[in-house]
Design a protein that fits this description.
2 domains; Immunoglobulin-like; elongated; 3-stranded antiparallel sheet; 19% helix; single chain; 154 residues
Amino acid sequence: MKKRNFRGNNKAQVLGLPMYLIIVMIVAVAVIAAVIYMIPQGTQTLAASVSSGAAQSSSGTDTENQATFDQFTVTVMVQTNDEEKNPIKDATVRLSGCHVVAEGTTLADGTTTITVPATAYLSAGINEGYMKMTVKAPGYEDFEDDQAVVLIRS
């Protein structure tokens, strides 16, 4: 009578491990993609414009020849971009540039007044600078204007 060896094939088990890991990774990527797809996106567009602002006059230069500015206010109007042009309440409007950041939240009429601090300045040799406006509101796509406010060395 012959003895039989019933030991498992260890090489086959080792070769099956990479395939198992690949299948697990594919399933994980599919699950992550499904979760990302379920995140709500902005469905409507909005528009924003600067209605008024005293942003185009400097108050002088400092010792490093940087153009300095007094504190000034900028009024921004935010509304939908559809046919009705409805104002958007509670939109966050941010102005950034010229070494400062200022932001405000729109009222029921879609307007906000943002006070830009007196720390805004233009570096030596720069005669004009722009402040970027970013508007965010729930349910709407973000709006950006790279040249919303101009600061000019006088």
